User: Fold Glutathione reductase from Frankliniella fusca.
Amino acid sequence: MHSKELFGHFNGLGVKGYVVVRLVKVLCDCDPAWSLELLQRAAPTVERLGVLFPREPHLRAVHAMPRLRRLHVWCRGALHAAPYELGALPPGHSGLRWLSVRDLPRATLQALLQAHGGTLEELELWVGTPGKQEWPYNCSDLHSLLGRCGLRALRRLLLRRWTGCSHIDTACRGQLAAVRAALPGLQVLCDRCDQVPEEEP
Assistant:
């Protein structure tokens, strides 16, 4: 069901006849107030979520979802101008298992990873190989960044590259090796080198 159609079934403080467990491609920039209300009303039951271009209030709403297990977030614009650092998980939140992050500010990403470090098993980062451009188109210290996040449950890291994002073969191999050395036992892949298809939350 399309999210606009779904929202028509939200009345008062609850949902009439629906338990919402999955929302994908929730556009937060076209109508910020509407999308925020959708996230807030679906929050008690959502387990899988995809949000595009959130602002700080949207991230706060996502961070408070107690049953959320899988999250894809793609950022741009307003959040980069004023990065938002998430705090600890609220009581009753058992933590993410799968996370895909595209173009989130570094400070926000680090806080998000630290909040879910004890439960996160699979991580997809849209990030470039080392170079001189700004994050995330280049990243020269990914191993150090991840090493500070307490990713105790992480089993698999997939690095996704996209248009404008650096991907040089030798730099990619070096980046993957540095992450493996920093986080022993972790499976580390590159979507281009290993031909890994994209998946939804």
Summary: The longest strand covers residues 22-27. The chain is about 30% helix and 20% strand.
